[in-house]
Design brief:
Layout: E1 2-9, E2 12-19, E3 33-39, E4 44-47, H1 49-57, H2 64-73, H3 94-126
Antiparallel strand pairs: 1-2, 2-3, 3-4
Amino acid sequence: MIRFQRIGRTNDPAFRIVLLEKARAAKTGSIVEQLGTYNPKSKALTLNEESVKKWIAQGAQPTDSIRNLLITKGVITGKKVNVLPKKSPIVKEAPAEVAAPAAQVAEAAAEAPEEAPVAEEAATPAA
């Protein structure tokens, strides 16, 4: 598996691009080979393209983030994969409740102008 291994300080991420067995965690240090580095803040990428192509030809699978990075840099071809989580549909019942009072206010407003001039005429002569 070709994946990121986080290095760097707190709030200053940097990543190694490493090759390791799929069942191993990237933090264990039991990597097979280091293929490059990536700094997401400066977008700096160093990559051993020949080794990446060799390992992919031998069956190593890159993670989706690594795959998108390799496609962007032109190392491999293909379509990018969406790595962001899908947004869950939010059920909103409040707008239906708000729409009903708004309709009642609109109906009341339509009736109110007819009644308002009568009230104004009655108030004007008395004053």
